[in-house]
Amino acid sequence: MFSTVKLYIPFLKYLRKRIPLLILLFILILGSTVLLIITPLILEAFLKNIRMQFATGLLLPLALLFLLLAVARPILSLWEAYLGDNISLLATNELRVDLTLHCLALDLRFHTQHTPGELVERVDGQVATLNNLFSRLVLSLISNGVLLIGIIGMIAFTIHALVGLVLALFTIFSIVIVYMLHSKALPLWKEARKQRAEMISFTEERLSGLEDLTSSGAQSYVLRELASQSRAILRTFLRGFQAIMRTRNLLRMFFDLGTVVALLLGVLLFWGHAIPLERVYTLFYYTTLLQVPVEQIVEQWRSLQQGSGSIANIHELLAEKSTIHGGDRPLASEALEVAFERVSFQYIEDTYALQDLSFVLPAGKTLGLLGQTGSGKSTVARLLTRLYQPQSGTILLNGHPIQDYALADLRRAIGIITQEVHIFNATVRDNLTLFDDSISDDVIVQALEQLKLTDWLKRLPEGLDTVLSSREQALSAGEAQLLSLARLFLRNPQVIILDEASSRIDPATEQLLDQALKQLLQGRTAIIIAHRLQTVMQTDLILVLENGRCREFGEREALLQQPDSAFATMYRLAAGEVRQ
Ligand SMILES: Nc1ncnc2c1ncn2[C@@H]1O[C@H](COP(=O)(O)OP(=O)(O)OP(=O)(O)O)[C@@H](O)[C@H]1O
User: Fold this and answer.
1) What is the pLDDT of residue 305?
2) How far, in Å, is the centroid of ligand 1 from the Cα of 120?
3) What is the pLDDT of residue 578?
4) Which residues pair with 415 in a beta bridge?
């Protein structure tokens, strides 16, 4: 039990800021508990009045008081629930933000091992469970705990200390037994959660490949797999549910036994003239009142156990640390020199994606990166932006290892355009500024003018307000690259890495891209992973990669002059293809 409680302690910091609300909540809980506890005393007074045939005029006020309490209690409960949910939503929203930021700061190695579906389940699904738990924990555990103590205290003080002691022991015994039985259900809940996360990842992954799946008629395979995963979840869930139901029924039996014992004790006390007859009724009432909080604590325990699976997962996620750390060297604001010194990198052990790669790209120069597919071109970009850490060698920026610079500064200084430009379901403006409201429309239009993209802007039906959809193919590959060139231009990085779109681009867009690129590259250091010879003809240097190794590196002009160079051969081949 303590290990479960310990799991929750780190999250108390999210409640600390809300102490005034928590105090208010506690007062409400206390108020509704007092109302519940005094109700049987009113009934007792009512019965006493009838039995002793006192002034019957008291009966009506007592009945009205009873009614008043009956109305006040649900109103207080409503406020409790509202306040509890409010506190818990505020706290868990904060946790959700912290978790999202944490995930974003983790390196790519972590993200390749965990699918987006799995992270969504962890960041959202498990935090939602925690939210449920916080509100129910605050409300149910505290209010039921207060109620239990209140009832047993009232029995001890108003009926008999011995009866109070017996019922207190009985209650503790029931809770312990229930707790022990519940421990059996915990691994089952955990397993069900894990299976659910796997199913979400599966669905997410298959949905992202919808086009391929539909065109190849693989839907039935996906559905079969989905059905088998759902069946597995159902089986685990049912086993957990059965374990809970067994415990619940056992508790009911316990309480029936407890009521009999309490009545027996009451009757004995009445016979011994220790209490009047109506107090036997009060004892019976209190004993039946005990069952609800104990039962609810059991229910609460079930949620707590479900939640501890979530909390353990959240802890696990928070314990993930990025293997990539930055330093605090300030970065110069002008164009930067990029150098690779004997850099080797493996994604998978014993398989080199880059091996012993060295080159120097002087500040303000452009490098055309060529090589067959899988030769390591994108890996150069990933290492330079520190998405991965090379196993050996050093990458230098202005003569200093890149790990000396703060990660945020480095990523601000290096702008990258990948082949898969992500289009957000938002306006062109937001897609260009990446939701930065501080960039005015004038600045955007000026940037587009400089990149010679005003015609493109004019063609958009609603200009900057045109909404692009991330689902539909809103832009062609070329247009998406145009958009990301402008995006980068607004960010003004010192180094640019462009992984050029390999798909066919129409001549008009190609011309726009070339113009915009020329503008963007002015005064900046750039690495262009080129798929078109036309682009490479604009660069100063050429690096040809072959199986992760440098096959050729040099000035473009010089390489072109050497007939036996790899680049000149590529050029001749491409020119030949064009002529054919
Ligand atoms: N996340 C990864 N895990 C394991 N291996 C990877 C990963 N990413 C790339 N690789 C492998 O590393 C090698 C270099 O990949 P890289 O993406 O750098 O090649 P590339 O030259 O950019 O290819 P392309 O022109 O097709 O984009 C390839 O063999 C690739 O299969």
Assistant:
1) 65
2) 26
3) 45
4) 496
pLDDT, tens digit, 9 for 90 and up, residues 456-506: 788 888 888 888 875 555 677 777 888 888 888 888 889 999 887 666 667
In the reported structure, the alpha carbon of residue 347 is separated from the centroid of ligand 1 by a whole-number distance in angstroms of 9
3-state DSSP of 45-103:
HHHHHHHHCCCHHHHHHHHHHHHHHHHHHHHHHHHHHHHHHHHHHHHHHHHHHHHHHHH
Segment (H or E) for 357: strand 351-361
**345 and 262 in one domain?**
no
Structural contact between residues 454 and 466, judged by C-beta atoms closer than 8 angstroms:
no
Residue 559 Cα to ligand 1 midpoint, Å, equals 26
Q: What CATH number is associated with residue 404? A: 3.40.50.300
Q: Identify the three-state secondary structure at position 523.
A: coil
Which pLDDT score is estimated for 8?
A: 73
Residues with CB under 6 A from ligand 1: 112, 347-348, 353, 371, 373-379
b/e sequence 325-335, b meaning 16+ C-beta within 10 Å: ebeebebeeeb
DSSP string, 161-179: HHHHHHHHHHHHHHHHHHH
Q: Of all protein residues, whose CA lies closest to atom 14 belonging to ligand 1? A: 376
Last residue of a domain, one of 319, 352, 384: 319
Residue owning the nearest CA to atom 29 of ligand 1: 374
Give the residue from 460, 440, 448, 422 showing the smallest Cα distance to 515.
Answer: 448
R_g (Cα) of the chain, nearest Å? 35
Higher pLDDT, 225 or 210: 225
Pair (347, 403) in one structural domain: yes
The answer as to whether 333 is a domain residue is no
Closest ligand 1 atom to residue 348 Cα is 4
Nearest to 117 by CA among 131, 129, 103: 103
The rounded Å distance from CA 375 to ligand 1 centre is 7
Residue 107, helix vs strand vs coil: coil
